[in-house]
Design brief:
Number of helices: 14
Bound molecules: zinc ion
CATH topology of the largest domain: TIM Barrel
Distance between the termini: 32 Å
Shape: globular
CATH architecture of the largest domain: Alpha-Beta Barrel
Strand order of the largest sheet: 4-15-14-13-12-11-7-6-5
Strand content: 15-25%
Structural class: alpha/beta
Largest sheet: 9 strands, parallel
CATH superfamily of the largest domain: Queuine tRNA-ribosyltransferase-like
Helix content: 25-40%
Radius of gyration: 21 Å
CATH class of the largest domain: Alpha Beta
Length: 398
């Protein structure tokens, strides 16, 4: 049996590239996990997700426990078999969406009580139940139940919330059944307050988790504040364990976080953007719906080798998205996931070569240069090509 483990192959400043070993296959880090909210990465077959270079995907416990139900998924062989994903899966605890999606939710020291957004049934999510549901799903990586501290929060509010999460982390640890190749991650909270982040990290470290997530970010604090929190949090995390930044983010966020020692990410941005006409390219984000693409025979991103960039024109993609054709969502999602995985692979290479700082500088310069300037005279510079924000919208999932 494969043991759950993390090996760091190279370091470059605070950044690391490595390999996570799990019961369901390895994960090269830094890694991006596409979000498969309802046991599917929207618009993608599992094979197509694999082909983008993804080693691991994320599933949403809140959604799956309500439909089709964790017990049913367990009877059908677990989430991986149910959705036919061959690699490892990480599941969240369900707490974030129970708080953000359901009506009449209340949180106390026992857990979260909420009414299902699907059928109105009253449910109680405790740390033990969150671990139990993820066990039924047969998640490769289980997350502890925590409270995602709202932003903004006063130091007192953030402290109370973080200490509740710490108490829940301890209960989650006790409820988790260790199995070879499976892991349990703790989640650092504490808002934007360095002392609270340090206290949270120390408390979790004492519980000896297989990995450590940084939670409560990408909730509206902005990139600069997020990176500052990582600056003060990462040094408190055990160096030899994987670090996961939850719910982040835009390509530039990923580069900044990797430079600060983060190894794993998840975000709905590439998949959700793919369904609304936003594409991430080597020259920044573009909106394929814009009129300037209507007659453009070129590929979406000439530096990409995905299905959408091989033979399809921007003009055709523009047409598909305007006509609301399913293929538009499929091709743009395919491209965006390829882009994210290529970015992670490029960062792994740069770390191994000791040139991540140069890579980051080049990345920033190309993003700033933009797609419009690259067209050398193409009109419509006034159009808004900015990407959608990374703020999670839990109602729709990935
Ligand atoms: Zn592409």
């Amino acid at each position: 049996m494969t043991r759950f483990g993390f090996e760091i192959a190279a370091r470059d400043g605070a950044a690391r590239c490595g390999r996570l070993s799990t019961a369901h296959g390895p994960v090269l880090t830094p890694a991006f996990m596409p979000v498969g909210t309802q046991a599917t990465v929207k618009a993608m077959t599992p094979d197509a997700v694999r082909e983008t270079g993804a080693d691991i995907i994320l599933g949403n416990t809140y959604h799956l426990m309500q439909r089709p139900g964790a017990e049913r998924i367990a009877r059908l062989g677990g989430l991986r078999r149910f959705m036919r994903w061959p690699g490892p899966i990480l599941t969240d605890s369900g707490g974030y969406q129970a708080m953000s999606l359901s009506e009449l939710r209340t949180l106390d020291e026992t857990g979260i009580t909420f009414r299902s957004h699907l059928d109105g049934s009253r449910q109680h999510l405790t740390p033990e139940r969150a671990i139990g549901v993820q066990h039924l799903l047969d998640s490769t990586i289980t997350m502890v139940l925590d409270e995602c501290t709202p932003f903004p929060a006063t130091e007192e509010q953030a402290a109370r919330s973080m200490r509740l999460s710490l108490a829940w982390a301890k209960r989650s640890r006790g409820a988790f059944r260790p199995r070879a190749g499976y892991g349990l991650f703790g989640i650092v909270q504490g808002g934007v307050y360095p002392e609270l982040r340090a206290e949270s990290a120390a408390g979790l470290k004492a519980l000896d988790f297989d990995g450590y997530a940084v939670g409560g970010l990408a909730v509206g604090e902005g990139q600069a504040a997020m990176l500052e929190v990582l600056d003060v949090t990462a040094p408190h995390l055990p160096a030899e364990r994987p670090r996961y930044l939850m719910g982040v983010g835009k390509p530039g966020d990923l580069v900044g976080a990797v430079q600060r020692g983060i190894d794993m990410f998840d975000c709905v941005l590439p998949t959700r953007s793919g369904r609304t006409g936003q594409a991430f390219t080597h020259r920044g984000a573009i909106n394929i719906r814009n009129a300037r693409h209507a007659d453009d025979p070129r590929a979406l991103d000439p530096e990409c080798r995905c299905m959408a960039c091989r033979g399809f024109s921007r003009a055709y993609l523009h047409h598909l998205v305007k006509a609301k054709e399913i293929l538009g969502a499929i091709l743009l999602t395919t491209h965006n996931l390829h882009y994210y995985q290529d970015l992670m692979a490029a960062m792994r290479e740069a770390i191994a070569a000791g040139r991540l700082a140069a890579f980051a500088a080049e990345f920033a310069a190309r993003e700033a240069g933009g797609d419009i300037a690259a067209l050398a005279g193409a009109a419509a510079a006034d159009e808004d090509d900015s990407a959608t924000e990374a703020a999670p919208n839990p109602a729709n999932g990935g």
